[in-house]
Amino acid sequence: MHTDNKEEMFPVVDEQGNITGAATREECHNGSKLLHPVVHLHVFNSRGELYLQKRPEWKDIQPGKWDTAVGGHIDLGENVETALKREAHEELGIADFTPESLTSYVFESDREKELVFAHKTIFDGPVTPSDELDGGRFWPLEEIKAGMGKGIFTPNFEKEFQRLGF
Fold it and tell me: How many domains does the chain divide into?
């Protein structure tokens, strides 16, 4: 069975993204509220549908919920663009895409605090979810809007979807 690597090291940052230290995944996700950077990639197809990944049951945060197509932590020594390309390839098998930067903001839950760098792209090639995920599919935006607030999606995805006005 898969599990998250609790000893994986993340950079700790200030709200401008400047590195101020480092901490393990476990330290960042245990309620410490250590601010750590993540990337999100919203993958649209040319029909305007949005790809969402299904989080597997073994994840330590929001298991079994539908979430942003690509979401991952920025590793120590990695920049935003490198992390975005790495995560898109790891999670969905996507390598040839052009990301458009949308926004950055701080997301806080009861367990963690993240500096999110959100991007989008239009992609019509093959999407091959890795075994890190429990699959995924393209959703019409109306179907996503109809499912909001019903426990289908992660709270982070719902807030970001509304923030970005998709």
Answer: 1
Q: Which domain holds residue 141?
A: 9-164
Please report, for the domain that includes residue 121, its CATH number.
3.90.79.10
Q: Note the pLDDT of residue 60.
A: 77
Tell me the pTM: 0.91
Of all helices (H) and strands (E), which one includes residue 138?
strand 136-139
How many CB atoms sit inside 10 A of residue 160's CB?
23
Largest CA distance in the chain: 43
* pLDDT tens, position by position, 130-163: 988 999 999 999 999 999 999 999 998 999 999 9
Compute the distance between CA of residue 145 and CA of residue 77 in angstroms, rounded to an integer: 37
